[in-house]
From TrEMBL:
SMART domains noted in UniProt: HTH_ARAC
Organism: Glycomyces harbinensis
GO molecular function: DNA-binding transcription factor activity; sequence-specific DNA binding
Phylogenetic classification of the source organism: Bacteria, Bacillati, Actinomycetota, Actinomycetes, Glycomycetales
Presence of the UniProt keyword Metal-binding in the record: no
Name the record gives this protein: AraC-type DNA-binding protein
């Protein structure tokens, strides 16, 4: 998926990582316990409630800071998301105290399954934008810029691709826009994220097909959902009932 090379969830009690490196940025949140680690010969700690960002190709290890172990979720971000020139600042300050950022990362982990790629891409781009702000020591953010023309072009593209869908990076390339700016411009103009708009259009189409007597599995395939369970999850969230009950 665009921006994410790998996702890893783990619960360790006695495992200790030796010194090693990754060729990606490592974005870590702790759900339980705490981790002690050395980064560039300095000791650090990853704690519940914090965000930890480790730069590529800088040696680090890791071990539990408590006898009860730790539970963690990790995203390995590809090099296109963050400028390598920011690596030194990440080495100096890998721990980030930002509850909103942590919540954004938590939500991203919840949409990494098949069928929700547009939402995941949108979330990772906004997370990367916030990480860049921390690394550049930009305290406070400027008001988002309104870009009505771009937002309407994005809506037209989504309307053309209701079933086929479109990745955020593909849309950004077609519309000559930065992915994060594209997501923000759409939200400012329409009060809804691109992935939410696309899902609502798909659910509307699914409702019509269900009322026409089409079986749910065929409706899922015909409206761009990954499978019937994917359709059911989003249909119930938006409509308030399952496709089967709605059709009846």
């Amino acid at each position: 998926m665009g921006g994410i090379a790998e996702a890893f969830h783990a619960h360790f009690t006695d495992h200790a990582y030796p010194m090693h490196v990754h060729d990606t940025w490592t974005l870590l949140i702790i759900d339980e316990g705490a981790v002690r680690y050395d980064l560039d010969r300095h000791e650090h700690g990853a704690l519940d409630g914090m965000v930890t960002l480790l730069p590529p190709l800088v040696a680090h290890d890791g071990r539990s800071a408590t006898p009860h172990g730790f539970r963690k979720r990790v995203l390995y971000l590809d090099a296109t998301l963050l400028d390598g020139a920011l690596a030194g600042r990440a080495v100096d300050s890998p721990e980030i105290a930002d509850p909103l950022l942590r919540q954004q990362i938590h939500r991203l982990h919840g949409v990494l399954g098949p069928g929700d790629e547009l939402e995941a891409e949108s979330r990772v781009e906004l997370i990367a934008e916030r990480l860049r702000g921390h690394l550049r020591r930009e305290h406070g953010t400027a008001a988002p810029e309104r870009d009505r023309r771009l937002a309407h072009r994005m809506r037209d593209l989504l309307d053309e691709r209701i079933t086929a869908g479109v990745s955020l990076r593909e849309a950004a390339a077609l519309l000559y826009a930065h992915p994060a700016h594209l997501v923000r411009a759409f939200g400012i103009e329409f009060g809804i994220a691109p992935h939410q708009y696309l899902l609502s259009r798909r659910v509307d189409r699914a409702r019509r097909m269900l009322l026409a007597g089409r079986p749910a599995h065929a409706v899922a395939a015909g409206t761009g959902f990954h499978d019937q369970s994917h359709l059911t999850r989003h249909f119930k969230r938006i409509v308030g009932t399952t496709p089967a009950r709605y059709a009846a």
